[in-house]
Design brief:
- With 329 residues, the chain is mainly β.
- Helix content is 12%, strand content 43%.
- The protein folds into three domains: 43 residues; 193 residues, no CATH class; 79 residues, Immunoglobulin-like (Sandwich).
C-alpha cells in the first residue's frame, strides 16, 4: 500500500506534464494562427487615417471651354457616434478654376488657394474588418437623386472582394458589376486595385471618382468628378495648398488701373501667376480685344468706345479671373 501511494503521485505528475505539454502545443498553434490572421488583415491599407488628403476635380462640359473646379477632403480628428469611433472628413474648396479644351489632359497646378470659409464637416469614416463604413453629412453637387443615404451609416468600400464577386455598393447603385481583375501596386497610387468594369477601386483610398462620389455612367464622357491626387499629410505638407497666412484670393492681388480709364489702363499681376492672355468683351459678350499678358504689368491702350467692359485674364498656371472696367474718354 505504501508503495502504491508513492508511485501514484509520480504517475499523476507524468500525466499532468503530458496534459500541460498538449495545452502548451495547442496554445502555440492558436497564437500562430491568430497572428497569421492579424497579419493578413493588417496587409489591407486603412482608409481612415489622420491627415489623409484627396484632391478632386469636378468637370463640367455644359459650357465651352470645359471648366474644372477643384476641392479636397482631409481627415482631421476623431469623434464617436453611438459608441462607435470614426474619423472626421472635412471638405475644402479651392479658388482655382481650369478652362480646357481637352479635360483628359488636365492636372491641377499646385499649390492652390483654399476658398475662404469653405471648410465643412462632410462626413465620417471608419475601417472595420477590411471594409470602410461612412456617414455622409454634406451634399455632393451632381446627381443628388443617386447619392448614398445621408446622416446614417452605409458601407462605402469592401476590400475582401475576389475576382468574380458582385459589387453592390450605394456609390455604384445604378450599375452593379463584378470584379473582373485585381492588381497589386497599380500605377499612380501604387495600391491594390480592384477593377469593376471600367471603374477602379483603390484599396485604402477610394475610386477614380473620389471618396464619397458616385460612380455613374454619364451621357457626356467627361462630366462628373476625377480623383487627381492622394497624400497622407496636411494640405500644405503635401504641397497642395499655400499656407493659410498666404491664402489671399487671386483676384485681390490683381489690379486694373486707372478705373475709369481714358487713354490706357494697366493690368498689374504678381509675377508668380506667370504669363497668359486677356480678353475684353462688352456687356453683350462680344469680343473686343484679345492679346498676351506679360509678367508683372501689362499696359493696354484704349481704342474702343466708352462703356462698361469685362476683362478676363487667363494665366498659364490655371487661374481665370474676370474684372470690370469703365472706359470714359
Amino acid at each position: 500500500m505504501w508503495l502504491e501511494n508513492l508511485i501514484l503521485p509520480i504517475k499523476n505528475k507524468k500525466n499532468s506534464n503530458k496534459i500541460n505539454m498538449k495545452i502548451i502545443r495547442l496554445l502555440i498553434i492558436f497564437v500562430f494562427l491568430t497572428t497569421g490572421i492579424k497579419t493578413t488583415i493588417g496587409q489591407s491599407q486603412l482608409l481612415a487615417v489622420e491627415n489623409a488628403t484627396w484632391i478632386i476635380g469636378e468637370i463640367s462640359t455644359i459650357n465651352y471651354p470645359v471648366t474644372i473646379h477643384y476641392y479636397t477632403y482631409q481627415i482631421e480628428g476623431d469623434t464617436t457616434v453611438n459608441s462607435i469611433e470614426y474619423k472626421k472628413v472635412y471638405k475644402y474648396r479651392f479658388q482655382e478654376v481650369t478652362h480646357l479644351i481637352d479635360p483628359g489632359m488636365s492636372t491641377p497646378t499646385y499649390p492652390m488657394h483654399i476658398e475662404p470659409n469653405s471648410k465643412e464637416l462632410f462626413g465620417l469614416v471608419r475601417d472595420y474588418q477590411q471594409k470602410v463604413y461612412a456617414i455622409r453629412y454634406g451634399e455632393i453637387n451632381a446627381y443628388s437623386s443617386l447619392e448614398c443615404p445621408k446622416d446614417s451609416e452605409y458601407e462605402l468600400f469592401d476590400y475582401t472582394w475576389q475576382v468574380g464577386d458582385t459589387v453592390q455598393l450605394c456609390i455604384q447603385q445604378d450599375m452593379p458589376g463584378k470584379v473582373t481583375s485585381i492588381e497589386l501596386n497599380y500605377p499612380h497610387f501604387n495600391r491594390k486595385t480592384y477593377f469593376v468594369g471600367n471603374h477602379r477601386y483603390y484599396e485604402g483610398i477610394g475610386t477614380q471618382k473620389g471618396l464619397f462620389e458616385m460612380i455613374i455612367e454619364l451621357v457626356k464622357l467627361w462630366d462628373g468628378t476625377v480623383l487627381y491626387d492622394y497624400c497622407v499629410g496636411s494640405l500644405t505638407g503635401c504641397g497642395y495648398a499655400v499656407d493659410i497666412n498666404e491664402n489671399e484670393r487671386p483676384e485681390d492681388r490683381i489690379k486694373i488701373y486707372p478705373n475709369p480709364a481714358v487713354n490706357f489702363f494697366t493690368i498689374e499681376s504678381p509675377v508668380l501667376y506667370g504669363k497668359g492672355y486677356y480678353t475684353i468683351s462688352d456687356i453683350f459678350g462680344k469680343l473686343i480685344k484679345k492679346d498676351n499678358l506679360t509678367e508683372g504689368n501689362t499696359k493696354i491702350p484704349i481704342d474702343f468706345d466708352n462703356g462698361v467692359y469685362f476683362i478676363k485674364l487667363y494665366f498659364d498656371n490655371a487661374y481665370s479671373i474676370t474684372k470690370k472696367i469703365i472706359i470714359n474718354q
